[in-house]
Design goal:
Number of strands: 11
Number of domains: 2
CATH class of the largest domain: Alpha Beta
Mean pLDDT: 95
Largest sheet: 5 strands, antiparallel
Bound molecules: flavin-adenine dinucleotide
Radius of gyration: 21 Å
Order of helices and strands: EEEEHEEEEHHEEEH
Length: about 210
Amino acid sequence: MIRNIKCNFQSELGKIQFINNKWKLYFKNNQIKYYDKLILTCPFPQLKKLSKKFIEDPFIKEKIKMDANITVMIEIKKINKNISSYLFDDKILGWAAKENSKKRFKSNNDLWTLQSTNLWANKKINKNRENKAKNSKILVDRFFKLTGIKKTKILTSLNHGWKYSSNSRTLKVKSYWNTKLNLGVCADWFVGPRVEAGWISANDLYKKINK
Ligand SMILES: Cc1cc2nc3c(=O)[nH]c(=O)nc-3n(C[C@H](O)[C@H](O)[C@H](O)COP(=O)(O)OP(=O)(O)OC[C@H]3O[C@@H](n4cnc5c(N)ncnc54)[C@H](O)[C@@H]3O)c2cc1C
């Protein structure tokens, strides 16, 4: 869908200004760009920092606490268990998915994605970059303990943390559009924590723009 749309990746927006009916965007790589219309789709804390003086709707004053998430991907020797995923009732490990079961690739080893609970990640996320090995070990040990899978050598391991991963509280509005400023906001956190929520929010904004 974005084949014919000009995209710039890896460029962080640091500041926005509305001058002579145009949006002036200041990027962290020192680029400056001008646009007629601006739609922001970032996590709530980043949105607030960038745009709170332009947004008139009360949603911008809400105390939205986005939850963190820490995920570890591991590769282990194949075990003969016909299981695709586990959902745990645990304070640390939320769920585990066996990527091989999605049949996107073939591997002689088992590849698992282990996702922490938000509760645990909220406590650990600020130091996750320094503590990657330690936090990965906690999640991996938990995985073997809870599943009963015999502890085996970890052949590959990759840890990734998201500070603002999701918001499970729904807001009263699904998106924001300001006709005078040509400024729009849509994102999953208006509606919920899943990708459908992002789509619902974007679709709601589309309808507001085309009213
Ligand atoms: C670990 C994890 C697993 C998930 N698993 C699932 C799943 O299995 N199923 C499911 O349905 N959903 C899942 N989700 C949720 C799903 O990824 C989100 O709902 C969806 O990506 C939200 O889309 P979005 O466009 O609203 O925001 P995002 O995808 O978060 O996009 C926001 C973008 O804004 C960028 N950004 C932020 N600040 C700036 C700035 N200042 N300048 C420029 N860019 C900026 C960010 O880098 C990011 O690329 C998962 C989320 C996480 C974190």
